[in-house]
Design goal:
The chain is globular and about 45 Å long. It has one helix at residues 23-35; strands at residues 13-15, 18-20. It has 1 helix and 2 strands. 19% of the residues lie in helices and 9% in strands. The chain has 67 residues and is α+β, with helices and mostly antiparallel strands. This is Pirin C-terminal domain-containing protein. Residues 42-67 are annotated as: Disordered. It comes from Streptosporangium longisporum. Residues 1-37 form the Pirin C-terminal domain.
Length: 67
């Protein structure tokens, strides 16, 4: 899938399949993914969801639009 358009005005953190506003939010999303919460399932999928990789040892930084 290819998405396009104007960049977000706010600063965001993108890591693996998650988009959030802070490192802490990404940590929470990763935990919820691992626990099978909040993301739903794909009907008819024959395989288990892929496990998220380990987070980097340094905090993820929010980045914004380049001007």
């Amino acid at each position: 899938m290819l998405l396009g358009g104007e960049p977000f005005e706010e600063r965001i953190v993108m890591w693996w399949n998650f988009v959030g506003r802070s490192h802490e939010e990404i940590v929470r999303f990763r935990r919820e993914w691992a626990e099978g919460e909040a993301f739903g399932t794909v009907p008819g999928a024959g395989a288990a969801p892929l496990p998220a990789p380990e987070l980097p040892l340094t905090p993820l930084k929010a980045r914004g639009r380049r001007r």
